[in-house]
Amino acid sequence: MEGRPEDDSRLVARAQRGDAAAYEEIVHRYQEVAFRTAYVIAGSAADAEDAAQEAFVKAYRALDRFRAGSELRPWLLRIVANEARNRVRSSGRRHRLELRLTEGFRPGDAAPSPEALALAGDERRRLLAMVNALSEDDRLVIAARYFLQLSGEETAATLGIPEGTVKSRLSRALARLRAKVEEAARA
Amino acid sequence: MPELEDRLTALGAEIAWPPTPPRLWRGDRQRRAEGLFARPRWALAAAAVLLIVATLLAYTPTRDAIAHWLNLHTTFTRTEHPPTPSPLPSGPLGQRLDLGKQTTLAGAQQQLNWKIVVPAALGAPDEVYLKLPPDGPSGGEVTLVYGARSDIRVSGITGVSVLVTEARGRTNEQFFQKTLGPDVKIEPVTVGGHSGYWISGQPHQFAFTDADGNPYFDTLRLATNTLILDDGGTVVRVEGDMTKQQAIDIGRSLA
User: Fold this and answer.
1) What angle do CA B83, B89, B93 make, to 5 degrees?
2) Got the DSSP string for B193-212?
3) Of A139, B26, B106, B130, which has the fewest Cβ atoms less than 10 A away?
4) Is the distance from CB of B54 to CB of B61 less than 8 angstroms?
5) What ipTM does the predicted assembly reach?
6) Chain B: residue nearest A146 by CA?
7) For position A179, what pLDDT does the model report?
8) B residues 4-33 near A, CB within 8 Å?
């Protein structure tokens, strides 16, 4: 086992027995996706931080209600997303999510020519701008599936909808985005 | 042109996400066991108000005295039932008292952007520990350990003569909190021009807000007699089984 990460179910079992280090490991493992998920919903880093922080406290207190054999990540993300939504609701303010691209190219990419880099960058920026301009439902489901790389179950938990609805909502969101992309290509 | 789904997946790898905050869960064992968690910023203001109200209700010195405390951004509350500490793990001192990682004075100073003060009255510390985020408060916390001194007996609680703990906080937002039992005495003192408090009588719990304004609860290690000083933005805690005058002499020699 040495050197291999411990699986979630064992970590949860340890945390349920009061092993603080196990919960620490759970947080360490999922804090990034938790924070980003909260950010996608709340639209503000400060609200996302508060929501994720509070969610980890609530999850800790609810650990004894976690059912053995369930998947931990969707369970955690559901709590995070609820907290983020509650925060938006109670604050009465809604930040419009404006996702942006990192500058430069990814490690491991072959170094492109400056012209190719500029063109590729423009294309990606345009696509992201189209995603940002979608309705909230469409944007959220696309961000969850493609940007956060959540599974169908996790997306359902995050959005608070059945998994079947995720599929239909994603399909419609992609269709609307595709139409925008094609329209832009024709212009 | 790649399929739209592929392009979106590729785009996902290039999203400029805000950096994940380092302390979504601040944990030491005791804090979690006691349910004392880092609060979101919005809760801090509410907590501070509650503490102030609790102080006004639970303790009855003059209003001037309370105002003076608050001016130091210090809030004291009294409780009839101080929390009971869980047994501390056995092992090396730093681990037993949850002081962080052992280092040297120079090593600790290199990792902090504020100046560590050392009490000349005690000389060079026997051991130095540093606790950085996420385990320690924002800005870090350094503890100077003085194992045994001929004039200050070794405390039965900490196992050493003196602990000098220093942490940085934002001057306008920082407060220290002591959860004081009914038999704990508190006296305002001035040491080398700095405001401070001498807390004695019974062991007590310790908590404060860190440089980011977040509450930071030390492990439920019960403090012994304690002198707290606000030394130019660094809050210094001198703990030990010592007299008030000994603590003041130590505080006055900080440089």
Assistant:
1) 105
2) TEEEEEEESS-BEEEEE-TT
3) B106
4) no
5) 0.84
6) B9
7) 94
8) 4-5, 7-18, 20-21, 23-25, 27-29, 32-33
